Amino acid sequence: MTTSQPTVLIVGGGPAGLSAALHLDELGIRAVVVDRQVRPGGHAADFTCKASPECVRCGACMVTDRASLLKQRSGISWMAPAAVAGCRQNGGFHVDIRKADGDMGLKADAVILTTGFTPFDPSEKPYGYRKGSNGNVITHLELEVMLHGKGKVRRPSDGALPEAIAFIQCVGSRDLVLGRPWCSCVCCGSALRMAKRIQQENPSVKATFFYIDVQSFSRNFDVVYDDCKTNIRMVRAIPGDVVRTADDRLRVGYFDPVERRYTEEIFDMTVLSVGMGPNPDTPEIARIFGVALDRFGFLGKAPNGVFVAGSAVQPMGIADSMASGAAAAQSALEYLAKNMG
Asked: Within the chain, what is the greatest distance between any pair of CA atoms?
């Protein structure tokens, strides 16, 4: 390699981006991370520890630890809030970066795209969800934020402890009508672990888990899943609607697979496990760096010198995103060794 220190631009500072930056820094490669958000970690920065009480390896603490490490590493530049506005290739990547205090240019020798995902907006589903309201229908990501910040679950409408919570899976995933047939992979594990944590702190809370089928989310999945089923009621059905009652509770209607009839139940709170999808700016990022999109809009095949990783490629959890980011960093290193030697 040449004597000058190469630079790798990383677009996106979530779990994959953090992992890529730290991996490169450990190998003596300068990393510049560009992110729209001031705080590193992406969506996962708001994820709560799901220990109940033992560690369940949910990955939330891994994001916190790596975000802290990033700030300590002199070989990593964190540029936020900022966004990529353009790129010219001529002996490297000449990238235009848009910042609040003015635009700037950056010369990079390789690029890693870890732009993450956007959660499905369930406002159009018949569940009564309204983003930003104080209603008692929330997404699982909003429950993550609630538990991460307050440390306990409370009904948004009145701050009361919910006695009965419905967890509804596959909202915006595995839905052919919406053109979103993919599984988001992590929702089942996240919802069950949060339900278990809530019950650990409040044993009186009754949790009901509505699902199509449950995706494996642990190495010892059978043991963990059997443990969840001891206190969490499992219903293999997806509710058709959720209606607010006169006394501010929620009537959930579904086809009971055991009784084989339509039934309704009353809950105090409903949590929607919303699917992962491509970010709205993914097509523009793909155009700027010449990356193909797959049929669902996720990042696909990239040209030489550009690497893609994390949930920008397909839905994946924290651990898989970090592994993907590290793998992309290693590929970038091999590219640099071959092309700058």
From this structure: 73
> How far is Cα 235 from Cα 237, in angstroms, rounded to an integer?
6
Ranked by mean pLDDT, the top range of 183-187, 216-220, 292-296 is 292-296
Phi, psi of 49 (to 5 degrees): -65, 135
Tokens found for residue 221: 């999945």
Cis peptide before 53, with omega less than 30 degrees from 0?
Answer: yes
Cβ neighbours of residue 105 under 8 Å, at least 6 residues apart? 94, 95, 96, 97
d(CA 59, CA 239): 30
pLDDT band for position 341 (cuts 50, 70, 90): low
What is the C-alpha separation between 111 and 87, in angstroms, rounded? Answer: 11
Instruction: Clarify whether residues 12 and 145 are in a common domain.
Output: no
Mean pLDDT of the chain: 93
Confidence of residue 216 (pLDDT cuts 50, 70, 90): confident
SS3 content of the chain, % helix, strand, coil (to 5): 30, 30, 40
What is the spatial distance between Cα 258 and Cα 245, in angstroms, rounded to a whole number?
26
Which residues span the domain enclosing 37? Answer: 7-116+279-339
Asked if residue 1 is part of any domain, the answer here is no
- pLDDT at residue 105 in the model: 95
Q: Pairing between strand 76-79 and 250-256?
A: unpaired
DSSP H/E element including 229: helix 221-229
pLDDT of 3 above 50:
no
Residue 156, preceding peptide bond in cis (omega within 30° of 0): no
Query: Is the pLDDT confidence value at 71 over 70?
Result: yes
The domain that contains 99 carries what CATH number?
Answer: 3.50.50.60
- Between strands 250-256 and 261-267, the pairing is antiparallel
CA separation for the pair 213, 211 (Å, rounded): 5
